[in-house]
Each structure stands twice: as C-alpha cells, then as structure tokens.
Amino acid sequence: MAVTAPRARELYIGADHEKTVVSAYPLRMRTGRARRYRFGSVTEVVPRTPSGRTREQRIKVSSELALVLLVVCAVLTLVDVPWAVAASGSLALVAFVAARQARAAKVGTLALPREEGAFVLHAEQERAAFGRAVATARRVRRTWPALHHMVDAAEADRSLTAALGELAATLSRRQQIRRLRDELYDAAGHGLPGESPAAMALTEQRTRVEELWQVSGADANRILASIHAAAVAGENLIHEQRVHETAREAELAISRLTATGTPTTNAGPELAERTAAVIAAYRELAAAN
Predict the structure, then answer these.
(1) Mind telling me which residue stretches traverse the membrane in this protein (predicted)?
(2) Same-domain pairing of 25 and 148
(3) For 21-76, how does the pLDDT look when each residue is reduced to its tens digit (9 = 90+)?
C-alpha cells in the first residue's frame, strides 16, 4: 500500500461528480469542458455546467451556420477563390462548431490520469476531507499579500503545495485501507468458530488493518490541522494588525483634537437674540396697524 506524494513543484486538482483527482501533471477532461483556476503552484480544474442544448438544437445551430457559410462560399467564388478551398474551410468550421457544442452539452468528467504519482479519490469521506483542505489552503493564500513583509510567499507556496500532495497520498492510502477493512469485517460474519485457524487469521488481519486505519487517520488529521492552523494564524495576525492600525489612527485623531481645543464662539446666543428682536419688532408693527 505504499504511496508516494506527487512532486511539490506543481499540483493539479480536479473534482467532478464521481471522483477527485490529484496529479503533478495537467488534468484532461473525458467528457464536457472545464475551467482552470491557478493559485500559486496549484491549478484547480472545475468542470463547467452542461449547456443543456438538445441534439435537435445543436443540429439547428450547425445547419444555420452551414447555410451562412454556403452563401459565403458562393461570394468567394465570384472573387476567384477556388470553390474547393472555400468549401473545405466551411466544412471544417461546421465540424468544429458541432463537436464543440456536443462537448459543451455533456456533463464534465475528468479523465483518469495515466502518470505515476497521481491519486484518485472515490470515497465520499476522503473527497470531503480533501475538499476542506483545498478550501482552507485558499484561505492561507489570501493572507500572504497582507503579510508580505513577514511571509516568503514562494517558500510558503511550496510548503502548502507539498502539504496538499502529502494529504492526497495519505487519503488515497486510507481509501485503500477502508476497502480492505470493509472486506475483512464482511468476512467476519460467516459464522466460523472462533478457534478455527481461518477465524484466528482473519482476526489478526483485522487487527493489523485497524492499526493502519488509525495511523492513516492520525496522519490525515495532522496535515489538515496544520493547514487550518496556518490559515487561522494568518487571519488572526491580519486582524490584529488592523486593530492596531485603527488604534493608532484613533490616537492621532485624538491628539489633533486635543491640540486644537474646542472653539468658543457666541454665535448661538447672538442668533437667538437677533431672532427675538426680529419677532418683537414684527409684533410692535402688527399692533400699530
């Protein structure tokens, strides 16, 4: 069950509806299309949503394109462009568009990698664990710009990529152990006497597999915890820096306010007196009339 983590320089991660693939080499699609997002030395491959076009709709689009190209070919022949050249180019374009439409209409499925050192996770538990690690790794990367004076982004990227590769290898191994563990537990229910050699051998193998199961779980949790700790440490440090900056700006603002003092004017009382005088004059004028 020995597994080797992929090279740490580059890592390609993809997940479709049935599996998660981790490889040191670019991933290909078996069906459908995908978008690729690069984060440092990690490239994530995300299958695109199918276009939803039916076969009839795709044929209609190709037919309309063919009619337009037929007119274009007729025009080109009038300007002495060989018919064979225009027709072959139009035919190639229609075939390309038809193939692209057909591919876009299919559910995106990753091809199984053939390169050595690639890992394919099928079990839901291992896929979920690796998905959490990838999401946490994005959090770690988002902290680096704010901590550029403290963190060597290139070195941190290599370490983070290596951790994801090691986790993929560990989870792949744990997936194999899970299958073997389930097989041994299923075989234990066949009603063999406990003192029979077969039952004793089965019990021994179950014990060994259980030890491997515990070790693989501890290894996976160690890597997951380290990635999570890096994310939390970076986020807390950024938050602390922001709080410190806010406190410093508040201190400067308070110092400026203290230095200038509070302006004292009689504008308020003067306005009240003038208003009262105007009202009194208005009343006197009204009484005289």
Answers:
(1) 65-85
(2) yes
(3) 999 999 998 888 889 999 889 999 998 887 777 788 878 888 887 888 788 888 87
In a domain, 163, yes or no: yes
* Residue 74 within a domain: yes
Query: What pLDDT does 3 receive?
Result: 54
Strand partners, 43: 12, 38
Q: Are residues 22 and 160 in the same domain?
A: yes
Q: Residues 64, 43: one domain?
A: no
How far apart, in whole angstroms, are the C-alpha atoms of residue 282 and residue 191?
113
- Yes or no: say if 69 and 122 are a contact pair by the CB < 8 Å rule: no
**Rg of the chain over CA atoms, in angstroms?**
36
Q: What is the 3-state secondary structure (H, E, C) of the chain?
A: CCCCCCCCCCEEEEECCCCEEEECCCCCEEECCEEEEEECCEEEEEECCCCCCCHHHHHHHHHHHHHHHHHHHHHHHHCCCCHHHHHHHHHHHHHHHHHHHHHHHCCCEECCCCCCCCEEECCHHHHHHHHHHHHHHHHHHHHCHHHCCCCCHHHHHHHHHHHHHHHHHHHHHHHHHHHHHHHHHHHCCCCCCCCCHHHHHHHHHHHHHHHHHHHHHHHHHHHHHHHHHHHHHHHHHHHHHHHHHHHHHHHHHHHHHHHHCCCCCCHHHHHHHHHHHHHHHHHHHHHHC
Q: Which domain holds residue 185?
A: 11-50+110-245
Count of domains observed in the chain = 2
Q: What is the pTM of this model?
A: 0.70
